[in-house]
Specification:
This protein is mainly α. Helix content is 46%, strand content 9%. It has six helices and three strands; from the N terminus they run βββαααααα.
């Protein structure tokens, strides 16, 4: 996967077409694009950078493994409760991949709550309960392998 750094003046998100004033990373076709702005450059730590990049990488993993395509193609008979659970399984899967990515990078993380707080910028109603998000991100981190992240076979209580 190629990583490209955007010009400081290029504020347009490839994935949404919207203008973003601060720093961000995103999947854009076959590369990860990163825009560095003052918010990351002047930050006292790298938590926001780390969180954005591993979150973006999680999207790459779900795409390259076929998980994303399979998720889009899942049958749900239009049942909102079933669609909501499938969406939570997908987003918790990406949380788990964040943990795997951190481990692969050699990052020592003792408390995932600050990471989830940064991620809440992207929060949506499908991400699941905080306790379950912590469970999956820690599971991925402890295992250090994507195979530990199978939310599709987990009980419904683990993906609530």
């Amino acid at each position: 996967m190629k990583v490209e750094f955007k010009e400081a003046s290029d504020k347009e998100s490839c994935s949404t077409g919207m203008e973003v004033s601060g720093s961000f990373s995103e999947i854009c076709a076959t590369s990860i694009r990163v825009r560095l702005a003052d918010d990351w450059i002047r930050a006292k730590n790298d938590l926001a950078v780390f969180t954005s990049v591993v979150r973006t990488w999680s999207g790459v993993v779900t795409g390259q493994t076929g998980i994303g395509k399979a998720w889009w193609g899942m049958q749900n008979d239009g049942l909102e409760s079933l669609m909501n659970e499938q969406n939570r399984r997908y987003y918790l899967q990406t949380d788990c991949f964040v943990g795997v990515s951190a481990k692969a990078l050699g990052r020592v993380v003792k408390d995932w709550k600050p990471v989830l707080k940064v991620q809440d910028f992207w929060k949506n109603r499908y991400q699941g309960k905080t306790a379950n998000r912590l469970y999956w991100i820690e599971k991925g981190y402890k295992a250090g392998k994507p195979g530990a992240c199978n939310t599709w076979t987990a009980s419904s209580s683990k993906v609530a």
